[in-house]
Amino acid sequence: MRLLIRLLCLVWLASAPAWGESGLDDRELAVMLDDADLSVAGSAANALGERGAEAFPVLKNLLAEGSPQQRWGATVALYRSTADPDSFVPELTRQLSQ
Fold this sequence. Notes:
By secondary structure, the protein is mostly helical. The protein contains 6 helices and no strands. It has helices at 2-15, 26-32, 38-50, 56-65, 68-80, 89-97. Helix 4 (56-65) runs antiparallel to helix 5 (68-80). The longest helix has 14 residues, at 2-15. The N and C termini lie far apart (38 Å). 24% of the residues are buried.
């Protein structure tokens, strides 16, 4: 069943013009960061990065409470973002020191 749901999501997303225009909101993309298929997780990170500062609240929450894979995806999204990620430096530094 999980595989069927994943395939349906991929088919739906493939028909969208781009992940950023797929109709998925930031929270849905955040869930996809934890997908076992790393290409799905990577695409979700790229889409969040394309949203810039609009995605910052979700990324901040993921860095504080997400799974390790979601935290990694949030970091990738910040790297890909054209918005200024300076407000995230203290949290990223704290996580690196742990």
